[in-house]
Design brief:
Length: about 180
């Protein structure tokens, strides 16, 4: 669900990004029926989604690694220790991002993530914590999937607002006055 929501939010913002998800269990499984229904209510199609298992190569190639729970970030860091400065739970990234402020348009994402990462301790990944972990609705009723989808939609929206600034609007040469275009 988070992958579909983030891909959609970034596309709406005009951000070209390769968004993919991977987990800790075997790959190849379809999205759960509850996830498919929750995303369909938002106009997002998960019918073709198949799970993937996280690998060192996937982590090494990622500019940003977002886990839904501390467990995911712990496993990512254990798999590839160098990923630590750019691996966060979604809730942690939004919380810490809000503390350091929005990324200015001229600042590279990596520099903003460095600022967001400052002061983190690996020990903070120990255990589970609702302040960092998104509730996993797997196996639950549709109501739980819808609640999680609502939480994810809010968190993803806040992340996109923080980390992916709206491009400056400029007037196209020869275009009608007052009709901005994204530059």
């Amino acid at each position: 669900m988070a992958e579909a929501l983030l891909r959609s939010a970034l596309a709406e913002r005009g951000v070209e990004a390769d968004v993919s998800s991977a987990g800790l269990f075997r790959g190849g499984a379809p999205a759960s029926p509850g996830s498919v229904r929750a995303m369909a209510r938002r106009g997002l199609d998960l019918d073709g989604h198949r799970s993937r298992t996280v690998t060192t190569d996937l982590l090494a190639g990622a500019d940003l690694v977002i886990g839904m729970a501390r467990l995911h970030v712990r496993e990512a860091v254990l798999t590839l220790p160098d990923v630590w400065p750019r691996a966060f739970t979604l809730k942690e990234l939004v919380r810490r991002g809000a503390e350091v402020g929005r990324r200015p348009p001229e600042e590279p994402l990596a520099a903003w993530l460095t600022r967001v990462h400052e002061g983190r301790r690996r020990a903070d990944l120990i255990g589970d914590d609702p302040a960092d972990d998104v509730a996993d609705p797997i196996g639950g009723p549709d109501r739980l999937y819808l609640e999680t989808a609502t939480d994810l939609e809010d968190l993803v929206g806040r992340l996109v607002d923080l980390a992916f600034p709206v491009p400056a609007r400029v007037r196209e040469p020869g275009g009608p006055a007052g009709e901005p275009s994204v530059g």
